[in-house]
Task: inverse folding
């Protein structure tokens, strides 16, 4: 499912549009996006953060 979500984001769809397309709730999309970014933050170095922002427009929050 995460692959479909990322493809939707890449294509410029909103979370609601992706949820409607996949017939799931908006919260499900948000959960998968949050989980995927958490995994990327753990595995990636600091060079990935600007790339994620440029690709998806989502700032990476340092914790």
Result:
């Amino acid at each position: 499912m995460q692959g479909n979500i990322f493809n939707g984001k890449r294509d410029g769809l909103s979370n609601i549009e992706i949820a409607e397309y996949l017939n799931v709730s908006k919260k499900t999309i948000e959960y998968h996006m949050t989980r995927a970014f958490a995994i990327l933050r753990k595995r990636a170095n600091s060079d990935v953060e600007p790339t994620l922002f440029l690709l998806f427009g989502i700032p990476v929050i340092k914790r």
In short: Residues 26-43 form the longest helix (18 residues). The CA atoms of residues 45 and 51 lie 11 Å apart. The domain at 2-56 is CATH 1.10.10 (Arc Repressor Mutant, subunit A).
